[in-house]
Amino acid sequence: MKIFYNLLVASAIVMCMSACTKDVNTITNTVIYKMMVNKTWHLDHTIIGNNTQSFVGQTSYSITYFKDGTTKDSDGLKGTYTITNNNGQYQVQVKGTSVNGNALNYTHSIESVSEVTMVQSFMLAGQASKTSLYFTSK
Question: What Rg, from alpha-carbon coordinates, does the chain have?
């Protein structure tokens, strides 16, 4: 009877643990998505290598990611975006169209995101250092 009881308890524990397991990738995508969407992100400064350029207090670039998967920025780009995990590095992929009707697609790595700050980065072909974009939502 004791062996049966122990097997029953062990089975219950295994069932609870498997029922409570979540895909970390899905959780992280969801958290990043909730932090990013329905906010206008204003570019505060950029860093390229050792060079910092500040835009605080100036009218600068901004971008909004909407809940429906669309995006628009202050330069007139409109399109769609997806958040993906590429080998542990989260990225935002934008497929858009400029004001002139030209296709503009890009991918930025998401370095960090919180309720009010976000850092994205990218490397241009031929560029020695990555470009980091520091945003705040106001």
Answer: 21
